[in-house]
Amino acid sequence: MNLRSVDLNLLVVLDALLDEAHVSRAAERLGLSQPATSSALDRCRHLFSDPLLERGKGMMRLTPKAESLRVPIKNLLVGITVVLDPPVVGLATVRQTVRIIMSDHPAVTIVGPLHKKLTESAPGIDLVVQPWHSAAEALDGLAKGAIDLAISVFPKVDVSFQRRNLLDVHYAVVMRKDHPAAMSFTLDRWLEFPHVLVSGRGETRGALDEALAKYNRERRVGIVVPSFLLVPPLVAESDLIAMIPRLCLPANAEESFAVFEPPIPVESFMLHLAWHVRRDQDRAVQHVGTLITQMFEKF
Question: Could you tell me which residue ranges the HTH lysR-type domain spans (predicted)?
């Protein structure tokens, strides 16, 4: 391919078309007419020797070739922008939305303080906090440019991502103050009662079940809930017992609940902050990431 014949503006249109999978929406997003956008699509089809967008049932869908182009095209456009138009404005004048994926914990702990710090240091940065479903889904969102930052457990990432350690998270066992097992807390007493498990995907086994298996023991999971926020009211009004990350304990938990170390060793986990390398030079994203890191240093 002769690069001198490639119109970079065509790649901008293609990026919008791949995101929207709809000619009219892409045209509106770019401020172009629909005929001009359709013409650009035809040129892109010729350039890549592929239909790129095909008609499906009531909608357009991306071809496999188009799907494979989404991330490279975004990376290319970000790189060109950094070279040709590097950001020089101060944080106080930045106007940008930063999208973050995280679970309810730590969101319930850090979102308020994070917003306050941003109003002081970068008041033009708006936040969109999106729910966490899985580490794989978070990485996919980062790769596609749908989100900017993700807080999750990322045991391993490839060279397309940056990963920063936030916190080594340990577990705690929590139950109501007058729970029968609280008087003499042992492994046997712990396993006599049904447990609460938190899983956004409805899984019925977790880190504890793997640890118990090493001792040829098992527990009964009495209820699976999608959010750590549901755990305190559940254990406060029942004989249910939960093992949750210490990060997710309510404030002053020892005053309202009986809290113990697990009676068997349960491996802690590292919580990470991740972003795509295309955001390395994005001042707004990096500023928000720095503030988040500083908050976790206080935990």
Answer: 6-63
CATH fold label, 92-167+270-296: D-Maltodextrin-Binding Protein; domain 2 (3.40.190)
Contact 125, 291 (CB under 8 A): no
- Global pTM reads 0.71
Rg (CA), the chain: 24
Tell me the pLDDT tens digit for each residue of 164-195.
999 999 999 999 999 999 999 999 999 999 99
Question: What is d(CA 1, CA 50) in angstroms, rounded to the nearest whole number?
Answer: 15
The structure tokens listed for 201 are: 């995907």
| Tokens of residue 18, six digits | 């791949």
Number of residues written out for the chain: 299
Coil, helix or strand for 267?
Answer: coil
* C-alpha span between 288 and 45 (Å, rounded): 38
**CA distance linking residue 132 with residue 129, whole number of Å:** 9
Q: How far apart (Å, rounded) are the C-alpha atoms in residues 283 and 287?
A: 6
Task: For residue 273, give the 3-state DSSP assignment.
Answer: strand
| pLDDT tens per residue, range 17-29 | 988 888 899 999 8
42 phi-psi bin (left φ>0, alpha ψ -120 to 50, beta other): alpha
What tokens does 234 get?
A: 């559940």
What distances in angstroms separate CA 21 from CA 188, 209, 259, one per listed residue? 57, 43, 51
